[in-house]
Specification:
- The mean pLDDT is 97.
- The strands form four sheets. Strands 3-2-1-4-5-6-11 form a seven-stranded parallel beta sheet, with helices on both faces. Strands 7-10 form a two-stranded parallel ribbon.
- The protein has two domains: 204 residues, Rossmann fold, CATH 3.40.50.720; 90 residues, UDP-galactose 4-epimerase, domain 1.
- By secondary structure, it is α/β, with parallel strands linked by helices.
- Strand 5, helix 5 and strand 6 form a beta-alpha-beta unit.
- Helix 4 packs parallel to helix 5 and helix 6 runs parallel beside helix 8.
- The longest helix has 21 residues.
- The chain has twelve helices and 13 strands.
- The structure holds nicotinamide-adenine-dinucleotide and thymidine-5'-diphosphate.
- The site of thymidine-5'-diphosphate has 12 residues, from helix 6 and strand 8.
- The site of thymidine-5'-diphosphate (TYD) has 12 residues, from helix 6 and strand 8.
């Protein structure tokens, strides 16, 4: 039997890593290729359990390197692409936007050219709800697939640019594709520069937690396992050329998120330190997932069950995040934050 080959870009990162594990275990009949440059956000130790499995393969490569990517696509004759690889942190995009354009825009365009050249069956582009900009605090307003793109950060602008290129390759060259736009993810292997793992790791070490502005900005949290199932569904059932929003109606203010983690870990709210607001800080994100639900998707985690599972995972897997926060990440943290406490 001929096996289908699925190339997952960014499979050493948070969501791509979870998706690779999900796909390797769920689809023994597919060959999964994890292509990743292993930037600061990429780490292969998370794949120790699956790396011996016959259907798992790793390729170290830079998606913005045209020759390298073309050669890989031609050699491996890839059937499907699920494209996660990106620079993904808003704060880093504010400090250094250029790498976001190189990886997220040029990198996506190189992959699109390679996909077109060999004629892939589908290109699934994993994007973000941040391309829609921000919502106000009216709880009845949501992002739908028809909401105009109005990105506010260099990160979301680079993601919106890549979305438009994917769309254009579909309209111009007929490239089969889907775009998914997901709300904030959380769960196992979330890199500790992002709010939830940053809070869990710092609270566990009795360190101050930086909350931007007044802490009232709202994010719509989705457990990464529910996101993986959504991408699987879109890959197999998504209508060619369509965009699907992914979110589970789990809106929380940042302060509520931090307070929940502190309470669950039995620590004091004195650990909270309000710091200078992020530049251009989007007020609120909230997804209307009706279109994806019609395709058959439903989240399995509420915020309460998901955050409990995630906190337990960080308690059980200290060695994974401790190796990260003691490395290069330390310099980033010191540059990014000047906290009054420790
Ligand atoms: P991440 O930062 O954890 O991982 C990104 C991965 O991409 C890393 O393994 C990194 O090594 C790799 N990478 C970076 N540059 C590369 C390059 N030039 N070539 C090859 N590999 C490269 O990111 P994440 O949080 O897992 O996000 C994955 C995707 O999902 C991104 O496209 C992001 O925009 C999107 N997304 C993320 C969230 C979220 O809450 N984290 C929400 C919605 C959408
Ligand atoms: P983040 O996890 O960086 O995701 P995104 O910016 O993509 O939504 O941030 C989530 C929210 O938490 C966002 O409103 C910014 C806020 N935040 C803090 O208050 N303190 C922090 O140290 C970080 C990293 C984020």
């Amino acid at each position: 039997m001929i096996k289908q080959k699925i190339l997952v870009t960014g499979g050493a990162g948070f969501i791509g890593g979870n998706f690779v594990q999900y796909a390797v275990n769920k689809y023994p009949n597919y060959d999964i290729y994890n292509l990743d440059l292993l930037t600061y956000a990429g780490d292969l130790t998370k794949h120790r359990v699956i790396e011996q499995q016959e259907n798992y393969n790793f390729i170290k490569a830079d998606i913005s390197n045209r020759e390298e990517i073309m050669a890989i696509f031609k050699k491996e004759k890839i059937d499907y692409i699920v494209h996660f690889a990106a620079e993904s942190h808003v704060d880093r995009s504010i400090t250094d936007p250029e790498i976001f354009v190189r990886t997220n825009v040029i990198g996506t365009q190189v992959l699109l050219d390679a996909a077109r050249e060999i004629g892939v069956k589908k290109f699934v582009h994993v994007s973000t709800d941040e391309v829609y900009g921000e919502l106000d605090f009216d709880p009845s307003s949501f992002f739908t697939e028809e909401t105009p793109l109005q990105p506010n950060s260099p990160y979301s602008a680079s993601k919106a640019s890549s979305d438009l290129l994917v769309r254009a390759y579909h309209e111009t060259y007929g490239l089969p594709m889907n775009i998914t736009r997901c709300s904030n993810n959380y769960g196992p292997y979330h890199f500790p520069e992002k709010l939830i793992p940053l809070t869990i790791s710092r609270v566990l070490n009795d360190q101050k937690v930086p909350v931007y502005g007044d802490g009232n900005n709202i994010r719509d949290w989705l457990h990464v396992y529910d996101h993986c199932a959504a991408i699987d569904l879109v890959l197999h059932e998504g209508e060619n050329g369509h965009v699907y929003n992914v979110g589970g109606h789990n809106e929380k203010t940042n302060l509520e998120v931090v307070q929940t983690i502190i309470k669950t870990l039995g620590k004091s709210e004195d650990l909270i330190e309000f710091v200078k607001d992020r530049l251009g800080h989007d007020k609120r994100y909230a997804i209307d997932p009706t279109k994806l639900e019609r395709l058959g998707w439903a989240p399995t985690y509420t915020f309460d069950t998901g955050i409990a599972q995630t906190i337990q995972w960080y308690l059980d897997n200290k060695e994974w995040w401790e190796q990260i926060i003691s490395g290069e990440y330390k310099n980033y943290f010191e540059k990014q934050y000047t906290l009054k406490g420790n």
